[in-house]
Design a protein that fits this description.
- There is one protein chain.
- With 220 residues, this protein is mostly beta strands.
- The chain has three helices and eleven strands.
- InterPro entries: D-lyxose_isomer, EcSI_cupin, RmlC-like_jellyroll, RmlC_Cupin_sf.
């Protein structure tokens, strides 16, 4: 993935979030040079992988398969007592997040504005295979059941709860979508099971200077 794609994606995400009046911490727009002037006071940001995360999942086709997100808060069992995580995701129209589940994380995904947030779900078996069993879950506290692989649409304001071992993929239709995530502690280094072998973070081609620092790039 090119650094120019990352820079552009974050700029577009900032504009989209501002349009929907979703405000980020002041350090969301710090440049790499500005990060260089901070150290121990920002330890939680570094240790808990807060901030920007732009990925093509190693597929080198970001326009079709990718995601831009910002982790606002997150715990770290080895370092603190925080047991929760919050993210905001810029889900582009027609851009898909690959099929995956989490072994441990339980999460609510919320359509906070824009287009419909569309998804497909499958239950995993004890060997982590994808099953044809119906999928039951909560939408805003209401028990809902769909067929495996059926397209489910969340309109703005709606939310869904994902239990562990629930395969899911999602994308936006009818415009870009601002999708929130509220979950137990997030660990992207060890709690993602992709249906096909993929990388969580991209290999970056440095075709221009970085305008922002990603959550896995802090050096202080």
């Amino acid at each position: 993935m090119k650094r120019s794609e990352i820079n552009q994606s974050i700029r577009e995400a900032l504009d989209f979030l501002a349009e929907h009046r979703f405000l980020l911490p002041e350090w969301a727009t710090w440049t790499p040079r500005m990060w260089g002037t901070h150290g121990e006071t920002c330890r939680e940001i570094r240790d808990n992988a807060l901030g920007w995360d732009v990925t093509d999942f190693g597929k080198r086709n970001f326009a079709q398969e990718g995601l831009t997100l910002f982790t606002i808060r997150n715990g770290n069992p080895a370092r603190d007592r925080k047991t929760y995580c919050e993210k905001i995701m810029f889900v582009r129209e027609g851009q898909t997040t690959p099929i995956h589940f989490h072994w441990h994380k339980m999460e609510d995904i919320i359509n906070r504005g824009g287009g419909d947030l569309c998804m497909k779900l499958w239950r995993a078996d004890d060997k982590e295979g994808m099953t044809d069993a119906p999928c039951s879950f909560q939408i805003d506290g209401i028990t809902t059941t769909v067929r495996a692989g059926e397209v489910l649409r969340l309109r703005p304001g709606q939310s869904i709860t994902f239990e562990p071992y629930m395969y899911h993929t999602f994308w936006a239709e009818g415009g870009h979508c601002m999708a929130g995530e509220v979950s137990t502690v997030n660990d992207d280094t060890a709690d993602n099971r992709f249906y096909e072998p993929l990388g969580r973070y991209p290999q970056i081609e440095e075709d221009e200077p970085a305008e922002f620092t990603l959550c896995n790039e802090y050096t202080f």
